[in-house]
């Protein structure tokens, strides 16, 4: 298995995804904004459709379109401050309508199944290069704004008081969410990509550690979910996205059982 080029590509892409997604996911969960993951993951579908129609790397067009949707979400939040869910619905409607029109036109040059459900067979060297470059940039930006992002996440009003540009941090973070999702769709698939963002975080939170330890455990669980899911998908010939998502839920259930049994002793 490990000597196969397509599996090597899948594991390399999976490693980056497994670290970046839970890193982003912890802040999403703490902000109580899990819906943004679903919205932007479905938005990436339109980006993929655009890439397939015009003959450009779908990951690149997904990244560009999802980033645009992320900016639109932050922009509209100023107009619908009390109705955040409405903003998500607007962007979701826009994205899916574009995707459906393009895919139904028959001009797409390849099947979209691999993007909807994930595929370990279709991860190419160019995809690895793109995922590595953009993923590395995202991680560096996250580390650069880490302290400010923590402050904004827990106390936005306090952050404004001490002079942090909250709006800029929110824009940057939303763009990072969009970039992370667009990079993950080759492995996870559009339909379940949000699972690797949220579920490992939910698993790590059951351990009830501090913020930094929860972040580390989130990435550890994310890594285990992706690697185990990829191996299982190879042997049972299933879509990696669904297999990884199921693995992450099983890991959550096992952690819940473990923590509850520890409490009862």
TrEMBL record:
Keyword Transmembrane helix: yes
Regions that span the bilayer: 12-30, 50-76, 83-108, 128-150, 162-181, 187-207, 214-236, 242-259
Domain of life, per lineage: Bacteria
GO biological process: response to zinc ion; transmembrane transport
SUPFAM superfamilies the record matches: ABC transporter involved in vitamin B12 uptake, BtuC
UniProt similarity note: Belongs to the ABC-3 integral membrane protein family.
Protein name (database record): Zinc transport system permease protein
Species in which this protein is naturally found: Clostridium uliginosum
């Amino acid at each position: 298995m490990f000597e196969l080029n397509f599996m090597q590509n899948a594991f390399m892409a999976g490693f980056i995804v497994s670290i970046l997604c839970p890193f982003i996911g912890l802040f999403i969960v703490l902000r109580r904004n899990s819906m943004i993951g679903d919205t932007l993951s479905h938005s990436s579908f339109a980006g993929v459709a655009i890439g397939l129609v015009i003959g450009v790397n779908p990951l690149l067009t997904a990244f560009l379109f999802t980033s645009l949707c992320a900016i639109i979400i932050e922009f509209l939040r100023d107009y619908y401050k009390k109705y955040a869910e409405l903003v998500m619905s607007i962007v979701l409607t826009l994205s899916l309508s574009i995707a459906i029109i393009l895919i139904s036109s028959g001009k797409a040059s390849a099947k979209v199944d691999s993007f909807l459900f994930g595929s370990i067979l279709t991860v190419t060297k160019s995809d690895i290069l793109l995922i590595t470059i953009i993923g590395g940039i995202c991680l560096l930006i996250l580390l650069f704004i880490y302290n400010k992002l923590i402050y904004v996440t827990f106390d936005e009003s306090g952050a404004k008081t001490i002079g942090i540009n909250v709006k800029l941090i929110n824009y940057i973070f939303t763009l990072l969410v969009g970039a992370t999702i667009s990079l993950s769709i080759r492995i996870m698939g559009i339909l379940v990509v949000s699972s690797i963002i949220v579920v490992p975080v939910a698993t790590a939170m059951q351990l009830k550690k501090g913020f930094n330890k929860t972040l580390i455990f989130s990435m550890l669980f994310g890594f285990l979910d992706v690697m185990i899911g990829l191996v299982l998908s190879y042997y049972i010939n299933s879509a990696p996205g669904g297999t990884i998502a199921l693995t992450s839920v099983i890991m959550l259930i096992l952690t819940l059982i473990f923590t509850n049994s520890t409490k009862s002793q």
